[in-house]
Write a structure and sequence with these properties.
The structure holds three protein chains of three kinds.
Chain A: H1 2-8, H2 20-36, E1 41-45, H3 46-56, E2 61-64, H4 71-80, E3 87-90, H5 94-106, E4 111-115, H6 117-132, E5 137-143, H7 160-165, E6 174-176, H8 181-198, E7 201-207, H9 208-212, E8 214-218, E9 263-265, H10 279-294, H11 297-300, E10 303-306, E11 313-316, H12 320-334, E12 339-344, E13 346-348, H13 352-359, E14 364-369, H14 375-382, E15 391-395, H15 404-414
Parallel strand pairs in A: 2-3, 2-4, 4-5, 5-7, 6-7, 11-12, 11-14, 14-15
Antiparallel strand pairs in A: 1-8, 6-13, 10-12
Helix pairs in contact in A: 3-4, 3-8, 5-6, 12-15
Chain B: E1 6-14, H1 18-31, E2 35-42, E3 48-58, E4 70-75, H2 78-84, E5 88-97, E6 110-114, H3 116-124, H4 130-142, H5 147-157, H6 163-178
Parallel strand pairs in B: 1-4, 4-5, 5-6
Antiparallel strand pairs in B: 1-3, 2-3
Helix pairs in contact in B: 1-4, 1-5, 4-6
Chain C: H1 6-11, H2 15-18, H3 29-43, E1 50-54, E2 69-72, H4 78-88, E3 93-99, H5 100-106, H6 108-117, E4 122-127, H7 162-169, E5 173-178, H8 182-194, E6 199-204, H9 208-214, H10 220-229, E7 231-233, H11 234-237, E8 249-256, H12 262-278
Parallel strand pairs in C: 1-2, 1-3, 3-4, 4-6, 5-6, 7-8
Antiparallel strand pairs in C: 5-8
Helix pairs in contact in C: 3-8, 5-6, 6-7
The chains are: A alpha/beta, B alpha/beta, C alpha/beta.
Amino acid sequence: MLKTKKSESTKAKTPKTEPKKENAKQESKIKELQTTRERKTVIMQGNEAVAYGALDAGVNFFAGYPITPSTEVAEILAAELPKRGGVFVQMEDEIASICAITGASLAGAKSLTATSGPGFSLMQEGIGFAKITETPCVVVNVQRLGPSTGMPTSPAQGDIMQAKWGSHGDSPSIVLYPDSVKEAYELTIRAVNLSEKYRTCVILLMDEVIGHMRESVRLPDMANVRVINRIKPTVPPHWYKHYDENQKYLSPLASYGEGYRFHVTGLTHDAHGFPTNKSSEGGEMMDRLRKKISYNIRDLVQIESHQMDDAKIAIFTAGITARAAKAAIAMARYEGIKVGLLRPLTIWPFPDDAVRKMLRNVDTVIVPELNQGQLIHEIRRLTKDKSDGDVIAIQRVNGQLITPNDILRKIKEAC
Amino acid sequence: MMDKSYEIRLSGSGGQGLILAGIILARAAVIDKHKVTQTQSYGPESRGGYSRADVIISDREIYSPEATNFNCLLALTQEACDKYLFDLRETGILIIDTTYVKNLALAADNTYELPFTEIAMEKLGSPISTNVLSLAFLVKVTGIVSESALEISLRESVKPAFVDLNIKAMKLGFDLAKNYGK
Amino acid sequence: MANIPQKVVHQYLRHDKKFPHVWCAGCSNGIVLGAIIRALASMNLNRDDVVMVSGIGCSSRMPVYIDLNTLHTLHGRAIAFATGVKLHKPHMKVIVITGDGDCTAIGGNHLIHAARRNIDLTVILVNNNIYGMTGGQCSPTTPHDAIATTAPYGNIEPDFNICNLALGAGASFVARTTAFHVIEMQNYFQSAMEHPGFSLIEVVSACPVIFGRLNKKGGAPQMMKEFRDNSIPITAVEKLPPEKVVGKIQRGILRQEIRPEYCNAYAELSARVQEKEGK
């Protein structure tokens, strides 16, 4: 696909300084090229899929800092964005990166950055800023092992809770988690779409193995790729509220340079965006951040249910570990054991209702994860009716994957 | 077609080009219209240290992308051979580079012992193409992908300046396999 | 420089929104805000195309009062946010309001790299030698021996020379003035905004309530007098004997040179790549 893209992206967007008419003409041409673009099956790396997913979702601004195991995302976008009239900039650190993509988004860009643990930690304050100011952007975190520098080239799933709670001050998160190269592509597009729709920083959590794994992938034709753009205000500037209240909290978003001259602050603010210390307004703002997630949970949640219909044992896990689980299930089913898999594609907000419902009829839940116990807390919370022994952990943090045999062994123990 | 997935591990040390070999093999599998996953594991340094690439080829959905029970193991160093030999299936194919692998802890039924690195230095003038040489040998011996798919993949995967050298290495690898009746 | 009537200045303020302002009596921030507005009005820029970005601190509260596209960001990060805005909409004028702590302590890394890139931002650094908003802690420009709440026995650290830092990092426009020299300030702001590249103006300013009290500087008038009497134009430096230069605030444009600007360089790269792809 790399090859096809290269040859067909030649009519990429003209620089922004060109007259608008010319731009519109070019854009329709690009659209035509994109929709007719042939998509054949190719071999593609997970990080590559993220980069092309971002481009297909309309991302036109990337700011980042090199870090293993996410660097390929930056490298590909450094080559591709200039061709398409987008911006790639290598910043001085990850803090600058998250700030630059937030600034660009406020100016109207669709923006994204990619990093790993150390950089993700540095970005947390900026992620909180994007959330409180309701500015769309996407942070891809290709996880590595351990705190600090850890094992940069080894897989782990240790940032699951950080993705939810990493930024201070209690703000809800949208976090997506793919289990294959193809899904990395799809969920990158979804992450960009959700960020635009919900006006927030959406996080895509990746496993190192998926980031670096190559798989045969057939990407959908561009005509079948659904792209969501932020709602633009239609009111005259003096009526514009940067945080307009409405039932579903999905409010229009103006960009700098379009005549609206709004104010954005990381301080608690009122509906216009101006700072406030009033407890009523501050409380309202915090409520708004919470409700825009909780009121729309059905739209946000995605969960895969695999062979769960008659399952007495359920495996609950995300990302790469779910692949081992599927292999283990195939082996166990061969021996007549009724076992299935529940895999959240959206890990935050946690799919409470779906999980509760699907786990109602199983006796045992096995939770394999490449960390010292994170998802299992959510499962324990939702399975109060089960005894402690019925929720079984498989945890590994040594750079090795949990294998199908590891899971099969636990399945057999549970029988 | 393949009923079950076929697991291959290419192992050695950093700098031997095994990850590239894995990519070339995986791309060849796609050209042959198989499903494929290719993963790798390596130390933080780009030279020395350990390095391995796994390729799983199948006609069904591939679940676990990590090879755990190999149908074929290529080992270019003693360390890699010692580390992974015991995960080779009973019926599996073992290919070792006797330039570096001097001791075999276990005699597999289907073992091919060739000094790939020495052959590369002698016939191709440098050890740089040992990866493609041994990969071509592996492809011919296992028949896991077609020779033409490997050639197309090779041409797509290496820099233009290195295509000729690598094609030469590939053909040499095929020829070596012919000595074994393959 | 155009003479801008007070009426026009008021048109730039968000009267209905957030006054009274948070600044103490005698603070220089209002003077700086006034000079910015007069510079903008003289340039007759379309306000829709001007963005003001700030970090955290007293001076960084400025954007809330001025009717532009405004962005009040994180401590130290104003330049990083501004880089994003500018790169996506290069035709917009981007002004960064920051302070000594915001820009040279926590945000020092962004300052030096933006200067190195020569991205067209106008950084107005209001240097009051102290962390005023949090009540008087030591900053990188708190003078040696001066008192701060976190240097109660006197500051043992040497202070930063902000302009030299910017010059060293490659800024293509660097100037220094004081809160007393209002017309000079307005002129520098205008020159900096017209300058196609990274510009930094250090405004030596008075914090009479926090820094002034801790260091017995008298009130705001005394501090302003000090700026008047204790500063010299850089053009005079060479003519004066060395003893008359020591300890003086040197005002003036320290550098004004044209070198490739980052957004332009990027646009050129982009055009080059697209042309090559088109072949």
